[in-house]
Structures are given as C-alpha cells and as structure tokens.
Specification:
This protein is mainly α. The chain is built from 2 helices and 2 strands. Helix content is 43%, strand content 8%.
C-alpha cells in the first residue's frame, strides 16, 4: 500500500498529476483497489510506482 501523499509526489515526479487527480485525504493509505483504479485512469501500472 502507498499513502496518498506519496502517490501524488510520485505522479508529480513523472509529470502525470493533473487537476483531476484528487484524493479525499492524502495522509491516509490508498487501498489496493483504489490504487489500481487511479493508475489505470492515468495509464500506468501500480508496480511502476
């Protein structure tokens, strides 16, 4: 699992973050399903993070 803030930081590093990348609470961990869903929306694999 990965925390929301870490997920957003990695996306910024890859220049993938967009205005539509919204997390309810960046301090909480993303569940496996939500992480897969967010990555699928961005066209990347969760293991790439």
């Amino acid at each position: 699992m990965v925390k929301g803030s870490e997920f957003l930081r990695k996306l910024r590093g890859w220049r993938l973050e967009s205005d539509s990348t919204i997390l309810k609470d960046p301090k909480k961990e993303l569940g496996a399903g939500l992480l897969r869903s967010k990555c699928r929306d961005l066209g990347i694999e969760p293991r790439d993070l």
